Amino acid sequence: MFQDISLPDLLASQEKETHTLVDVRSPKEFNEATIPGSINIPIFNDEERAEVGTIYKQQGVEAAKERGLQIFSQKLPAFIAEFKQIETPMTVFCWRGGMRSKTAATVLELMGIRANRLMGGIRTYRQWVVQELENQQFKPKLFVLNGYTGSGKTAILQRLSKHGYPVIDLEKMAGHRGSIFGQIGLEPSNQKKFDSLLISEIRRYQDEPFVFIEGESKRIGKVYLPPFLNEKKENSLQLFLHLPVEERVRNILEDYQPWEYPHHFEEAFQLIKKRIHTPIAKQIEEALESHDFALAIKLLLEYYYDPKYEYSTKHYPDKQRITIEAATTDDAFQKILQMVKVSNQHSN
Q: How many other β-carbons are positioned within 10 Å of the β-carbon of residue 59?
């Protein structure tokens, strides 16, 4: 018989050895939120799950079980074959640790494949995440990367991460770049997915001396930062990047690639059009329509984003700010590395 495992035991096990988590829910459920690092080997695809759910509502439990068994039996060889490729200890889970994960674990056991089943499923994990975020104390000090829109903050965070520095990339986890155009070309996260990714990163870096993070507002796209992290971010050292406007325009063009989604940019602009002086708004609109994205971005920076940014950062006292003047994003990155080295020398 397969073994049920509690969430605390599972988390402890993950710290000791490589452990594969398998979400057997439908792809849609998996994409909406899962336990970070999990893989998806679904018992039912989205259409099959909807069909079984309809039968359950209209005909009852037994009819739904019978149809579910018919569907699953046809795909059983392929289902088993995917699990055979896993070479580590594994745990399967579904929403509540019920029928789907029990079926998966039982079938695997019959085929000689050992798998645990997570007690309470992802619902228990979600409850744990919420509790952790409510009671969390994040020990590392934060270096908060700020700068006018287009200063290359995300690119710098990615480079810092590649160099082995601890980085929490809030925009990546949120699936949003933090501006009115920030969701274009991305898949925004919901709060459940964001919270799960965030608590995973917090646990990962809890014992680091410092962590880099971007100076986001409390809300990023569709999600919100937990109060403890937002408060710590606001009270931490703020690194302000100052780059020439031309460099910032180039960064934005490279990051957003507006020529790939021209209509999305025109639609998003309508949401802020009324907040910009009418003649300038008309210029921006015409530039977007003619695909002169460099001009549109330059005007948006000068007349919308830069004034907003200046207003939002006035409350930081001088002792909490370090200004980094740089000609390019690479130049800014090198200066941040030097700052970190100096900081480490002083702390040692």
A: 12
Catalytic residue ranges: 94
pLDDT score for 255: 87
Q: What percent of the chain has pLDDT over 70?
A: 98
Say how far residue 243 (Cα) sits from the centre of its chain: 27
CATH number for the domain whose boundaries are 136-347: 3.40.50
CA–CA dist 306, 310 (Å, integer): 6
How far does the chain reach from its first CA to its final CA, in angstroms?
Answer: 54
Task: Give pLDDT, residue 42.
Answer: 97
Query: 171 near 177, Cβ under 8 Å?
Result: yes
Each residue's pLDDT tens digit, 45-73 = 999 999 999 999 999 999 999 999 999 99
**Domain ranges, ordered by start, for the chain:** 3-131, 136-347
Report the pLDDT value the prediction gives residue 346, as an integer from 0 to 100. Answer: 58
CATH 3.50.50.60 fits 3-131, yes or no: no
Which residues, other chains included, contact 297 with Cβ-Cβ below 8 Å and sequence gap of 6+?
Answer: 150, 249, 252, 253, 258
What is the rounded distance in angstroms from the CA atom of residue 151 to the CA atom of residue 145? 10
